[in-house]
Amino acid sequence: MSLLVNRLTFIPLLALALPASCFAQKKEIVELGRDLALLQEEVRSNAKAQSDRLAGIEATLKAIQDQIATTSRALTVLDSGLKDRMEKSMATPLSGVSGKVDNLAQDFGYIRESVDEVNTRLGKLDQRVADLTNVIKTMQAPPAPPPPAETAKGCPAPAPAGITASGLYQDALRDKSGGNLELSVKGFTDYLCWFGDTDLAPNAQYYIGEILYNQKQYDQAIPAFDKVLEAYPKNAKTADSHLMKGRALNKLDRRSEAEKEFRACISLAPNSDAANWARSELKGMGLSVSPRAPAKRRP
């Protein structure tokens, strides 16, 4: 009987406890749903913010790309304009510079020839001193002048007293440099009359031809260069004489003869400056040019 009473008493208590437990669980569920809703809203807000940021970045990148394209087009136009202006502004000066370079190269050739001549003169200093000593002795006690005679070349023999090979040559060379061309030709001609067997005789004959060429007397310059080639074979002016004779022939429109002289110059001294000028002359005539021979290695 007591057991039945206990059970009957437990049932009402259980009925009162169940609603309280269910209410607590329902409250937790509601709170979880609210938290979930807040979390979803926060996710949506973050997604929208990220989307806005990406859109802003894309707009910025597009603006940068447009700016790069515009700058590239401007640089292309600027580069084209600069090239056109440079070509127009440099065409005339460059042509003038080319002519000046040719003149400088010729002047340099003259300077080098002068240096070679100075070296030759220094090597014969003792002989000059001896000549000067003889001149001084002659001036102190001059012998009776011999009757004038004519050499095979039609020059008075011997040279007048006080005239030396070195002095006469230097005077003629100085007249040439100073523009006194007539006096220079006379000086070189006298030098050949009295000292035609010296080492500088080919130079004197060559300079006569060169002066005639520069005076545009091409008909007279050609035989002057021929004298260098015939009377003084294999000398320092042989290649130059072929070159200058070819130029004179070309000025007279004797192209085949000019070509022959240019090729003789190249064959004689293929690595010389004269050969390089001869190649340029052949190219200017529209003729083929053999390549420059490689320089020989010294052992």
Q: What do you see in this structure?
A:
With 299 residues, the protein is mostly helical. The chain has 2 domains: 1-92; 102-284, Tetratricopeptide repeat domain (Serine Threonine Protein Phosphatase 5, Tetratricopeptide repeat). 78% of the residues lie in helices and 1% in strands. The chain has helices spanning 2-123, 125-140, 165-177, 181-195, 201-214, 218-231, 238-251, 255-268, 273-284, and strands at 149-150, 156-157. A two-stranded antiparallel ribbon has the order 1-2.
List keywords for this structure.
mainly alpha; Serine Threonine Protein Phosphatase 5, Tetratricopeptide repeat; two-stranded antiparallel sheet; 9 helices
**Overall mean pLDDT score?**
78
Tally of separate domains: 2
- Tally of strands: 2
Largest sheet composition = 2 strands, antiparallel
> Which strand-content bin applies to the residues?
under 5%
Shape: rod-shaped
The assigned CATH architecture of the largest domain is Alpha Horseshoe
What is the element layout, followed by pairings?
Layout: H1 2-123, H2 125-140, E1 149-150, E2 156-157, H3 165-177, H4 181-195, H5 201-214, H6 218-231, H7 238-251, H8 255-268, H9 273-284
Antiparallel strand pairs: 1-2
Helix pairs in contact: 3-4, 4-5, 5-6, 5-7, 6-7, 7-8, 7-9, 8-9
